[in-house]
Amino acid sequence: MTEQNISNLSHEDRVFEPPADLAANANVKAEVYEQAAANRVKFWGEQADRLSWGTPFTDVLDWSNPPFAKWYVGGTLNAAYNCVDRHVEAGSGDKVALHFVGEPDDDTRDITYAELQDLVSQAANALIDLGVQTGDRIAIYMPMIPEAVIAMLACARLGAPHTVVFGGFSADALSSRILDCEAKVVITADGGYRRGAPSALKPAVDEALQKCPDVTGVLVVRRTGQDVEWTEGRDVWWHDVVDSASKDHTPEMFDSEHPLYVMYTSGTTGSPKGILHTTGGYLVQSTYTFWGVFDYKPEDVYWCTADVGWVTGHSYIVYGPLANGATQVLYEGTPDTPHKGRWWEIIEKYKVTLFYTAPTAIRTFMKWGEQIPAEHDLSSLRILGSVGESINPEAYVWYRENIGGGRTPIVDTWWQTETGAHMISPLPGVTKGKPGSAMTAIPGIAAEVVDDAGKPVEHGEGGYLVITEPWPSMLRTIWGDDDRYKDTYWSRWPGFYFAGDGARKDDDGAIWLLGRVDDVMNVSGHRLSTTEIESALVSHPKVAEAAVVGATDETTGQAVVAFVILRESAGDGGEEIVAELRSHVAKEIGAIAKPRQIMIVPELPKTRSGKIMRRLLRDVAENREVGDATTLADSGIMDKITAGMKTAKDED
Ligand code: ATP
Ligand code: MG
User: Fold this and answer.
1) Residue ID of nearest Cα to ligand 1 atom 3
2) Torsion over CA of 468, 610, 622 and 581, rounded to 10 degrees?
3) Which residue range forms the structural domain that includes residue 574?
4) I need a surface site. Which of 191, 215, 234, 302 has the fewest CB within 10 A?
């Protein structure tokens, strides 16, 4: 028996056309889709001209041993040279690469491409002095400061794959990643600034390294001036060894398939996997998509609010923007320090034109209210981006109106750590925007929504998102575990990459992401996705954020349980709020989706990249001990939610 497809519940009629002048001058025009589809391999071969190669490649793609791909076979290049040196050689040395904004007031620093070249070369020379050789792995555990970017590029320059571990992760998370990829050196800082205070990093490194005897060197940036423990012979200060190092370093050209980095997925669903990206294909696709999806022009000022500890920070802070020679903002701190208008103040000051953030941030700003961005001149913005989760239609419209002044297209970019770069997204000068839809696969990418049998679903139906052809920035394997790579991504349907996400095609064939397949609920035989019910809740004027999970239910198999954060303007929502929200969902998308139970909560459990961890909420909803919460941003939050849940049950 084939299982029933995921239900298609929501309905959205709003459509935004690309602005005429943007469409007329767009980097990517409509005909490119067809050209690319006619010969995908040739298309990606042409995109490789965006990079500078040492030796030209002989074949674009070798797919003779699937699912193990080789792109740009025989070509050699250096990622750091492509991101830095070649812009200086082309005469752009004086162009600002990074407008760094520290969290403390007035702590800013502009770094030009010429300065970046010196700094990266010095850091590379310092790493050589620490014994780093091509192929050695290096762990980076840093705040959002320029040295994080410099460290990544220095590793790339030496062909020493980096693994960046998010600075908010614990010592355990750090040590398990260091051990998994056998890193030899750690680059860190004494600490960074978060929420108005110095927040230490070095103690976590010291603790982690008790379990990692093979780490021979720790390079430490002095950022906050906090006291640190020091292990002589292992620890060195960045300012001692990098500042005094030579600014001359000749980059070596590496094979296109040379490992560039290992990124452990954020762990929203389970134990982290070391996703391996290599050099040529990864750099081609991140460079092309930055240029095409953000319609990047040389005079743009770009800002991506992600952390470098997340794949978005790799592809769309470091490699994509810098390979294009872009000017960008790099901000260290949180959105509400010292006040809730900090981001908008930064956009106003630097006249940011391209802005890339996550739905979780947008919903937080919705919660705080539109009067905050309204105090700032945001008229420089021309394109807004979203990544990380489905953007609820209501959040999309709020973003477009209150941040984009009702003018700016929004690119809702679907991709994963594993895909390395954008895969499904509108193109701002071509695709009309439907709030909540990632629209179509970008040129050169073949995506499909299939049913259990692997057959494409009809328009108007839901199913599983797959990628049907290899792509340049695809992961090459899971570090040290080829079998897990095959099992996890390629075993469900032969020849298809299975992303783990549900999706549906609308009547025009546009793709709507429905959340993770693991989170799909089965209510009285109907398979319901989380995204649509959450979006229905968020469309209520009192709601800022919502998470729904399926909890075991005697009558319906599973029942929908919702956790809701209210907007500040809604106060406590009033006595009738739960009844109001339940009937709102029933009215918006149907009685089948009506939550059995709704909990009003102060916060939701989220990963450090801002994604809701539904599996923890499922534990709460089913009254179990809460499972592994180590990747949670705020570990206290589960206690508050569990306590609230108990009270609600007592009242029943
Ligand atoms: P883990 O795989 O360890 O559980 P993760 O999947 O959260 O962690 P990422 O690779 O950062 O780690 O996130 C990719 C996932 O995020 C996608 O599979 C999808 O579920 C979601 N996602 C990203 N962008 C979008 C988007 N624009 N629309 C809908 N979902 C998105
Ligand atoms: Mg994932």
Assistant:
1) 267
2) -100
3) 520-647
4) 234
pLDDT beyond 50 at 504: yes
Atom 17, ligand 1: which residue's CA is nearest? 416
Q: Does residue 75 lie within any of the structural domains? A: no
Q: Identify the CATH number of the domain in which residue 563 sits.
A: 3.30.300.30
Most ligand 1 atoms within 8 A of CB, residue of 273, 386, 389 to mutate: 389
At position 492, the amino acid (one-letter code) is: R
Ligand 1 atom nearest the C-alpha of 273 is 3
Q: Which two tokens stand for residue 494?
A: 């032969």
Q: Tell me which ligand sits closest to the C-alpha of residue 389.
A: 1
List, for residues 49-67, the tens digit of each pLDDT value.
Answer: 999 999 999 999 999 999 9
CA distance 554 to 66: 45
Strand 217-221 relative to strand 447-450: parallel, antiparallel, unpaired?
Answer: unpaired
Does 193 reside within a domain?
no
Q: Closest ligand 1 atom, CA of 611?
A: 7
Answer yes or no: is 615 within a domain: yes
- Please report how many Cα atoms fall inside a 13 Å half-sphere around the Cα of residue 534, on the Cβ side: 30
- Interval between CA 500 and ligand 1 midpoint (Å): 9
How many domains does the structure of the chain reveal?
1
**What percentage of residues in the chain have a pLDDT greater than 70?**
97
Residue whose structure tokens are 């990098």? 242
Cβ-contact 341, 375 below 8 angstroms: yes
Ligand 1 site: residues with CB under 6 angstroms? Answer: 265-269, 272, 311, 387-390, 412-414, 416-417, 438, 499-501, 513, 516, 609, 611
Going from the Cα of 417 to the center of ligand 2, the distance in angstroms, rounded, reads 7
Closest CA to 419 of 451, 384, 465, 379: 465
Nearest in space to 549 (alpha carbons), one of 558, 534, 560, 557: 560
pLDDT tens, position by position, 543-568: 999 999 999 999 889 999 999 999 99
Tokens 């040739």 appear where?
42
Q: What is the DSSP letter of 441?
A: B
Q: Please give the DSSP secondary-structure letter assigned to residue 253.
A: P
In a domain, residue 567? The reply is yes
Helix residue spans in 57-98 (DSSP H): 79-80, 86-87
CA distances from 609 to 154, 196, 208, 316 (A): 25, 20, 22, 14
Centre of ligand 2 to C-alpha 273, Å, is: 9
